[in-house]
Amino acid sequence: MSLNNKKRVFSGVQPSGALHLGNYLGAIKNFINLQDDYDCLYCIVDLHAITVWQNPTDLKNNIFEVASIYLASGINPKKSTIFVQSNVSHHSELAWIFNCITRIGWLNRMTQFKEKAGKNRENVSSGLYTYPNLMASDILLYLTDLVPVGDDQKQHLELTRDIAQKFNNDYSDFGGSNFFPIPDPLILAESSRVMSLRDGTKKMSKSDASAMSRIELKDNNDLIRKKISKAKTDPLPIPDSIEKLEGRPEIKNLLSIFSSLSDTAVDETLREYEGKQFSDFKKDLSDLLISSVSPIREELIKLENDKGYVRDVLDDGRTKAIEKSEVTIKKVRNIIGLG
Ligand code: TYM
After folding, report:
1. pLDDT at residue number 1
2. d(Cα 195, Cα 176) in Å, to the nearest integer?
3. Nearest CA to ligand 1 atom 19
């Protein structure tokens, strides 16, 4: 809870490559909807990005680009705090403290680590392994109530709740009782898991080798049309019920994208398109995508020519984030008995 009694929202995006429709529908679009009713902090989580190798020049550019995408998508810096994680060293300090709270067994259960490390487990950075502790620190440092994320972050959110509870219990006799609020995830059904355009069983991802698998927020209109026209479908027409989408992951994905872009439920989209050919649906989907993505792209071009403005937003964000995080970290040091 913040000083003005609004509940607090925190979320972050890694500056590790071109942002895509999954990032937008799963996370950023929801950030915008929350700005009026909550005290929101939106972070560019660069310390998370370096858990895997990042070329330093690209990283600098990507940090700037995520900040620009936040702004271009409609995050208003007068309402929300936009800042870079590494600008606020309290994140790293609290993450270290959580390294000492989290049990190894908890980290061993993290499916994202298993997926990312794959067979290379012995040779990935230890930061990749303790990554969820840093994420918990991002969230709890601001005594966050609500965390808008895509479905792939659900397990990390559960771990964050466990860490908060263990801290509160371990230090209950030292002023820690109920210290951290237990944050709730905000995961929206239609857009929580946007899938690859080439394989409906795989998540749309920055790291997929094929750019045809994803719509990037910087794609031009022709490219958007091309990617949608080539998106995998099947020879059957569009069905009349959600149950009949079972076993047709690509179709389900395209209909879900349409529904979340148009803020309608999937069964309503089905009612509109049942029995129709995919060529008609894909044309409408491309139009809808272009009407959502092209204003962001145009705004990005403007910001590209106004770098000073973006820098000012981030400087201001740093000041505001430090003001808030300082209060928490001082109390945490005191509860633990540090310094
Ligand atoms: P990241 O950078 O991988 O993704 C940013 C946000 O986009 C969502 N997302 C998706 N949503 C739907 N469909 C997809 N295909 C898709 N791909 C990505 C993610 O769920 C996320 O919400 N660990 C986080 C960053 C982070 C964070 C935090 C988030 C660090 N600290 C604190 C919330 C709170 C991550 O790697 O997101």
Report:
1. 64
2. 41
3. 150
Cα separation of 41 and 91, whole Å? 13
Tokens (6 digits) for 110: 């993290």
Sequence-separated (6 or more) residues with CB below 8 Å from residue 158: none
Q: Among candidates 41, 86, 33, 79, which has minimal Cα distance to 62?
A: 86
Whether ligand 1 lies within 6 angstroms of the CB of 113 is answered as no
15 Cβ inside 6 Å of ligand 1? no
CA distances from 98 to 31, 95, 177, 210, 258 (A): 26, 5, 16, 37, 40
pLDDT along the chain (339 residues), means of 10: 83 96 96 96 98 98 98 98 98 98 98 92 96 98 98 97 98 97 93 95 94 97 98 92 94 96 94 92 97 97 95 98 98 97
Answering whether pTM is above 0.85, one says: yes
Active site residues: 116, 203, 206
Chain mean position to CA 317:
18
Alpha carbons 260 and 221: distance in angstroms, whole number? 19
What is the C-alpha to C-alpha distance for residues 327 and 36, in angstroms, rounded to an integer? 24
Q: Could you give the CA distance from residue 77 to residue 320 in angstroms, rounded to a whole number?
A: 11
Contact predicate 186/149, CB 8 Å? yes
* Ligand 1, pocket-test mutation among 8, 13, 86, most atoms within 8 A of CB: 13
* Residue 196, Ramachandran bin (φ over 0: left; ψ between -120 and 50: alpha; else beta): beta
**Quick check: CB of 196 below 6 Å from ligand 1?**
no
Cα distance between residue 73 and residue 295, in whole Å: 8
Q: Smallest Cα–Cα separation from 153: which of 7, 11, 1?
A: 11
**Residues forming a β-bridge with 82:** 42
